[in-house]
């Protein structure tokens, strides 16, 4: 009994010590400071924007043609490929020209025969003119000679036209680029048999690029010819390109009730046909008035507990998570419509180790 009593007493005496130890552990964990952060810092800046919706469109070449065959024969285009740069007048493909050459030779021979007939007939008229005037040659016979001369002259004219047509047909056997540009697609392969009207190759010029999009009737007032209009192209949102309105197609699409607007883009080697982009349309409240909004790096925006925000750097270098409302993406930056003011310092990049209340250990402002 004495031994059991001593064990129970020892357990009773040690229990408060265990409780105190556990309580001290909780206090230590609660007072632990989040690890310091060594990440770059940036300043929220203003960027020009326009409220309202956006209209989507596509960059297109103002010079795009599909070349078709105008003669029949076997095509030769061994060196033709998609994306090939071409020059004005460069031969892209040829069609077997043997039939066209034969037609030119036939027309040339026919013209030679017509010229010989004309010379003979005209010689008779010239020789017999004095005889007809003196009465030595019957007028009926002389009129027949004149008719033969006129017919021979018409035959020459016809022969010349036939030769020209044959030469033109022969020129159709060489398919040349109408301008400097690129081959965007080819519809033939070397050795294919083609007929007049068969599509051969599509060539596109980079000389003049146009952004085409559809706008509602209420927005047409801001797209008058000559008006400067910013265009945001995918992948280049941080570098808007300003184009000039060329005009509006004065007929709406019956399904969408929208009008096609054409904006001529400036020369820029980074802009290519097929690029997707957007144009801001005026809202009902501001009628398209431009303003300024705050923009931050996209890497600065993060999610914490289902909330979207940024980490603001205080004067004491303490980080505070602040909820913001993100807007449009502009390249590697995002507009912030509420929750942040221009000039405030924030983390330019956030990872999962950053905690609210942590202190900034370093980081260069950019």
From TrEMBL:
Compartments in which it is found: Cell envelope
Span of domain CusB-like beta-barrel: 213-283
Keywords: Signal, Transport
Boundaries of every Multidrug resistance protein MdtA-like C-terminal permuted SH3 domain copy: 293-346
InterPro entries reported in the protein's UniProt record: Beta-barrel_RND_2, MdtA-like_BSH, MdtA-like_C, RND_pump_MFP
GO molecular function: efflux transmembrane transporter activity
Segments traversing the membrane: none
Signal peptide: 1-20
Record keyword Membrane present: no
Entry coiled-coil feature ranges: none
Pfam entry (one): Beta-barrel_RND_2
One GO CC term, this protein: efflux pump complex
Domain Multidrug resistance protein MdtA-like barrel-sandwich hybrid: 65-200
Family: Belongs to the membrane fusion protein (MFP) (TC 8.A.1) family.
Name of the protein in question: Efflux RND transporter periplasmic adaptor subunit
